[in-house]
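Encode chain A's predicted structure.
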Amino acid sequence: MKDVVIITGMSGAGKTLALKCMEDIGYYAIDNLPAPLLVDMVSMMEANPEKFGKIAAVMDVRGGRSFEELFDLLEELKRKGIDYFILFLDASDEVLVRRFSETRRIHPLESEGLRIADTISREREILKRLHENADVVVDTSYLNVYQLRETLKGIITSDRKGVGISVTVVSFGYKFGIPLDADIIMDLRFLPNPYWIEELQGLSGLDKRVADYVTNFPEAKDFTQRFAEILFELLPLYAKEHKLHLNVGFGCTGGRHRSVVVAEEIRRILEEKGYKVNVVHRDIDRK
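Encoded structure for chain A:
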């Protein structure tokens, strides 16, 4: 587990829930930590580990001008040998607009007099550098509360002393949009579709009958094996470049059948090799 986790990202993307998740797994949680206090907070953690233990802090545009100092402070932590981890939560503009509309919350930058869509665009501009330097970006657009919790736990509790990198495998439906945080995306719409088999149509890829239908096709077996071999070559290279987490997306039309089956197969193969794998079936319950 990481000693210092900085949670940041777009307003409305789920940072409050992420902080609560960190608290649940043993972190000392701080919301809206002003950037100038970051180094002091880490010093307190080191001086009193029994009380503070590991720290998770939300730092975002609410910090105003002080937020601009964050990168200088991160450099100071690096010089002190403090290992920190930046978790960036994101969501599509459409989803963020809808969330602000539904909750009637005020955007932190609303005082600038911009429309909500323009405000979101302005926030993206401010956070661009942080987004580019984040250790992990999580797209919460279509994750429910439970999926987000499991995804975060899988990322934060990954053992860097093991195989060196953790993997999140996401199944999704193209008709609902691709995951914004995926590092690798594979289109599985070339595989025969169980949706057109009447007795399988209402089931999901977690059902053995659907899994057997998909995996019995030679092209499915061949693809799964070949892709797994590619991953086994790539994962050590990513780890060598200090990438702690890889997000792999498998898409089919609706995200209920083919993508779910292949995601589960890849999970099984990776876990047999000792990799820590978290699976999210993003659209399995969507129509």
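Residues 166-281 form one domain.
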